[in-house]
Structure formats: C-alpha cells, structure tokens
Amino acid sequence: MKHAIRLAAAVIAAVFAVQAAAQSSTDGREVDLSAVNMAILEDFLLPAYARLEEAAPPLDDAAQAFCAAPDDAGLTSLKAAWHEFMDRWQVLQHVSLGPVSFEMRRYRIQLWPDKRGNVGKHLRRLLAAADPGDLEPSRFPRGSVAIQGLSALEHLLFEDDPAPAAFTGDGAFRCDVVRAISANLLSITGQIGVDWREGPGAHRTKFELASAGNAFYENEEALAEMLLRDLRMQLQLIGEYKLTRPLGDDARSARPRRAESWRSGRSLRNVRINLESIRDEWRAGFAPVIGERGLRDGVEAAFEDALAQVAGFERPLVNLIGDPDGRRRLVALNAAVAVLVEYFLDDVPADLDLAAGLVSLDGD
Fold it and tell me: pLDDT tens digits for 228-247?
C-alpha cells in the first residue's frame, strides 16, 4: 500500500513537472508556451502547408498541358501557376523545422541563397546531357537539389524570356525537365502534408507532446525558441541577402542579379510576402503573450512601417537599384527590416525569457 502511495505521488509530481516545463516565468507572470506553440501550429503552419499543397496540382497540370502543345497561352498559364506556388512557398520559406526539414525538402523546393550558382551549373549540365534517365521519378529526386525546385523552374521559364518554340524540337528536353520539376514539387508537398497529418508518427503530435520531450523537441521551451529563431532568421535573410547583397555598398558595386527571383521580377514581392507571414506567425503565437504593451505595439508599428515601404514599389528591384531615388527607398526599407531584426534578437526573446539562439543563413 505504501509502495502504491509513493508511486502515485511520483506520477503526480512528474505530471506537475511536465506542466511546469511548459510554463515560462517572466517577471512573475506565467507564459503558457504549449499554447503559444499550438496556436502557431493550428493557426499558421498547418493552414499554410495546406495552401502550399493545394498549389502543386495546378502547377503540375499547367506544365503537362503546356508541354503537350507549347504555345503562348500555355506558357502564360504555366508562369502564373509558378507564381502562385512561389507565393505560397514564400509564406513558409522561413520554417526550418518539421517535415519540410526531412530529406532536404526545404532546399529541394527552393535552393536559395545560391551563392555558388549551383542551380545554373547543374541545370546546364542536365540539359547538355539530355538523358531521359536523369528525369526518371525514381532517380530525379535523388539527384542534385539545385535542379529539383522553384529556382531551376524559374531559370527555364523566365531567363531570357523564352518563347514556346524554345521548348520544342531540339529544346523538347527542356519541357521534359519542366515536367519533372513540377511532378517533383507535387510529390514533395504531398509528402510534407502526409507527414504533418497522418499516422501515429504524425508530426503534429510532436508539437502536442513537446512538453514530455521527443526526438525533435527537447521541451516546450526549446520548440518555442526554434519557432522564434526562424522568424529572426528570415528577417536577417531579407536584410542581408534579399536587400543588402544586391544593393552593394553603392550604385557602382550593386549586383542586381544577386537578388532572389530577379529573373521573374518578383524580388520585392517575395519580401512583402515574407514580412506578412512573419507578422502573421508573430500574431498567432507570440504577440498575445508579450508582457510589455509598449513592446507589442512597437513590433506591430515596425511591421506596419516595413510593409508600407515595400508596398510602395512599382518596379522590380533590379530596375530600382541603379536609380538614385529607388536606391534610397530600398536602403530605407532595409533599415526598417533591421529594426525588426533587433526586436526579435533582443526585446522579444527577453520578454518571453527565451534564448535568441544562433542562426545560419547559407542555403548552399
């Protein structure tokens, strides 16, 4: 009997210990990190991945239809489907945890930054060989990540503004590559969806049970820190790679072709979507538990400022860098993003008693 009582007491103590681990005490207030993480999962991550998964079949259908009979209308439709998929991917580009991290899926969807020009090099090699075996469904996903996703597809569809004829005759293999990439993206997004949702190992349960610890997340605090770190990492990526690298130190050192998605003219569109998605995830999970009202208002104002600035551009980034006024406005946007970086580097983690953590921005 005494053994049973001691065992029951130990179980109760363990339960309370798990619950306490899910609480972050900051200046006397309790932050329910389990609720934060689940709100981000339910209100941001799962809906965004569902929307990405929904964009894959139209892209694949457009690729199949265009390559069956290449014409201007089909190419226009294919480009529109690519843009739609890219829009939905940019919402999730910052997420480094969960099923998108399995089997290098994140980089297979989009290899960027690509500082070594791997996409172009591997794509040229693939096209020169023109070996149908390279595109076999059993082989293509195991090849170079550089040619499997959105970046390679952008090269094929937008570089030098190719006409439909470029995908016929001697260029027919280009269309085969287009179809292989679209089918690959369809497969990857479907796999991500399954891994989030289905079976006893569904990744959503790893979120739900993080307080007990598992192979992915040590505890609720570690998961919250990873989610917060991803937001800061994306803000730093915007500032350092999407803006500073193409801008250079001055107009003479500018490198417009270092910008993300410069071929398709959507570099700033990507930045806008990134900022909106970071704000949405912040609002879903972290903003409601910030203790200092002034901090919450300051972060919101910083998002509003950066988004207002990026919304004001009417021309692609590559056309703005050499223009004095355009360059001035891009520098101002970069400064607005830097304000957000500081918030997510210092004030927000400190308010929540979370570690800021180190980040890596290299995509290759």
Answer: 999 999 999 999 999 999 99
What gap in Å lies between CA 4 and CA 10, rounded to an integer? 10
Residue 214: enclosing H or E segment and its boundaries? none
Cβ distance 302 to 339 under 8 Å? Answer: yes
Shared domain check, 193 and 72? yes
Q: How far apart are CA 22 and CA 353, in angstroms?
A: 13
Beta strands in 78-233 (DSSP E): none
Domain around 330 = 219-352
Look up the pTM and report it: 0.91
Residue range 248-260: average pLDDT?
93
Task: Express each pLDDT in 5-39 by its tens digit.
Answer: 343 334 334 433 444 444 554 566 789 999 999 99
Among 146, 181, 208, give the residue marking a domain's end.
208
User: Do 181 and 235 sit in the same domain of this protein?
Assistant: no
Q: Which sign, positive or negative, has the C-alpha torsion 141, 145, 151, 156?
A: negative
Cα atoms in the Cβ-side hemisphere of radius 13 Å centred on 20? 6
